[in-house]
Amino acid sequence: GVAYNPSGLFRGEAELWRYRGAPSLGQPGTFSQPWAWVDVSQLQAMAPLHPVAVQCQEAQLVVTVHRDLFGTGRLVRAVDLSLGPASCLPVVWSTSETTVTFVAGLHECGSTLRVTPHSLIYTTSLNYSPVPPGNAVVIRTSPVVVPIECHYPRRNNVSSNGVKPTWAPFRSTLSSEEKLPFSLRLMSDDWSAERASTVFQLGEVFHFQAGVDAKNHVPLRLFVDSCVATLTMDRTSSPQYTFIDFSGCLVDGQLDDATSTFISPRPRQDVLRFTVDAFKFAGDSSNLVYITCHLKVSPADQAPDPLNKACSFSKAIGLWVPVEGPQDICSCCEMRSCGLARRSEKLHAPSRWPGGRVRRELPSQPDPLVKEADVVVGPLFIHSWQDHTVRRVPSRG
Fold it and tell me: Which ranges does the record mark as transmembrane (predicted)?
């Protein structure tokens, strides 16, 4: 077997193509970027180019297949190739092309996920199933299954102005142009440390800690404006489930089977903690959830208001209760309309920072004067004791 580790592929992300039995290049945990493993031992290919190339991207894999699959000079038919147990068809091919390209999400086409201490391993296969033409009584090629794996390291933190997956502790940190870093972390049940595992069972509780590094700034108070769960890192994808909405209303806590709440009092003004009962999407077999929260701050000496608040629903008294501030700032949570339209739909009313600067919440790219950011945690792995257990119904997206 031969090991090949090309450089400069897909924005510098390393891939590893390896025949079965090849010498090891080190434990998977030593890789800091996604890499691919492909077993082409069944092909016995003599072609100088690798017949099956795989790119493991952030949320999908791209498989490029040379139609000279066996290195004999005879091109296989594209219609005889498929991806995964679900037999997904290629997205790019024609009779005049010598390659066929498949593009599929990591959880699509029947792929499976295996979690190890060092890696997330998505497994699928390239299938070649030749159909004899007409009433042929002989065949000249045999079916082939080429196993494919995409390995993603779990011990690599990312902190940047772009959203990238972060496998441990599964978070991303974004900053505004004024370098005010926000963070969102999964914590242990007693809040003493960051949670080491991102695998949950239904019935457990997510402990989230949102924070902002307020050094060299006037004292700031942090708020969680909204949080949405999705199956991918794209917060606009469908299905989705919004559990904090309307500028700080933890709406998940109103559900009969939920105890979700903001934790009061805060440990500091620039930190806000909240708990959410673990959930998964109905009908989804991947058991994965990404969480995207929009965080923002206001001056600590500015009184909380309907647009800057942290409100939980108390089932004991049947009312919305703020972490701080007068109770009436939460009344809009019950009406599902906190003064103005949601951030994603329309501008919020301007408010002023020290020095008279006007702040607005924009529907797309944040204003550099606004101290706010989207942060991502995920993927979280949600398992249930019974396959059909459902804890949430996602909103339409």
Answer: none
The CA-based angle 289-311-195, given to 5 degrees, is 40
Same domain flag for 57 and 130: yes
With the C-alpha atoms ordered 70, 71, 72, 74, is the resulting torsion angle positive or negative?
Answer: positive
Is residue 197 domain-shared with residue 319, that is, in the same domain?
A: yes
**Same domain for 246 and 193:** yes
Among candidates 236, 237, 206, 233, which has minimal Cα distance to 290? 233
Question: Which of 30-39, 258-267, 275-284, 330-339 is predicted most confidently?
Answer: 258-267
The answer to whether residues 178 and 368 touch, using CB atoms and an 8 Å cutoff, is yes
- Digit-coded pLDDT (tens) for 22-68: 333 333 334 567 888 888 777 765 544 578 999 998 888 999 999 88
User: Rounded distance, CA 344 to CA 366, Å?
Assistant: 11
For 206, residues 6+ apart whose C-beta sits below 8 A from its C-beta are: 186, 200, 275, 276, 277, 278, 291, 380
DSSP string, 169-214: S--EE-B-TT--BEEEEEB-TTSSSB-S--EEEBTBEEEEEEEE--
- Are 373 and 255 in the same domain? yes
- Read off the tokens for 171: 């978070």
pTM of the full structure = 0.55
Residues 108 and 222 in one domain: no
In this prediction, residue 181 has a pLDDT band, given cuts at 50, 70 and 90, of confident
- Together in a domain, 80 and 199: no
Side chain identity, residue 228: V
Structure confidence at residue 271 as a pLDDT band (50, 70, 90): very high
Q: Of 107-121, 207-221, 286-300, which has the strongest mean pLDDT?
A: 286-300
**Residue among 342, 237, 347, 217 nearest 289 (CA):** 237
